[in-house]
Amino acid sequence: MFCSRPVFGRKWRGHSPEYVLKEIEHLIANYGVTTLSVLDDNFTVDLDRAEKILDGIISKKWKLDIYFWNGMRADHMIKTLAAKLKRAGCTAINFGVESVDPDVLSFIKKSVSLKQIERAICLTRQVGIRANVFLMIGNPKDNPKSADKIIDFVEKAHVDDVHLSMATPIFGTKFWDWVDKNGRWLD
Questions:
Q1: Rounded to the nearest 10 degrees, how much is the dihedral formed by the CA atoms of 97, 137, 142, 93?
Q2: What is the pLDDT of residues 146-175, one digit of tens each?
């Protein structure tokens, strides 16, 4: 259902920790960068790599404000990672939650539970990192009660910011195919 796979391919390819650290060092030395917005759509897909990058930032004592703008999977967040992110300078993380309705999560094949999402937000906030979420409305299986569940979730989980968007079919995705097959296009 997700857009990045058909657009960028199914195989994840990441630069080595050494390469990433050299890039950051170049930005600091040549441009005086103090804020780093990480656009990797899943920085923690390779936890060992992520930790090596964070360890490198910490050991070099760079003073950075790091913001994971493009999302991080909630089921990859553990207490030690949250603490390391904070020590490296992380100020905010956007979690790709998409929906808090179990029926919608199942339909879009999001393999993260609400309990994992709530735990990730709690761990993040406990170490002093802002916990933001990406949510979508308008998915198949959404209904007026889904919107109520979003409001309840945001209040209960103490989310710092909510980035709400419409579920948008993108050509080449399973969502596009579903909308087309089921005649759900809006005029």
A1: 10
A2: 889 999 999 999 999 999 999 988 888 888
Residues of the chain with pLDDT under 50: none
- The model's pTM is 0.87
The order of strands in the sheet holding 130-137 is 35-38, 65-72, 90-98, 130-137, 161-166
Secondary structure of residue 162 in the 3-state scheme: strand
Please provide the DSSP assignment of 54-93 as one string: HHHHHHTT---EEEEEEEE-GGG--HHHHHHHHHHTEEEE
* Domains annotated on the chain, with CATH: 4-181 (3.80.30.20)
Nearest CA to 91 out of 40, 160, 165, 153 is that of 160
Determine the pLDDT at residue 40.
84
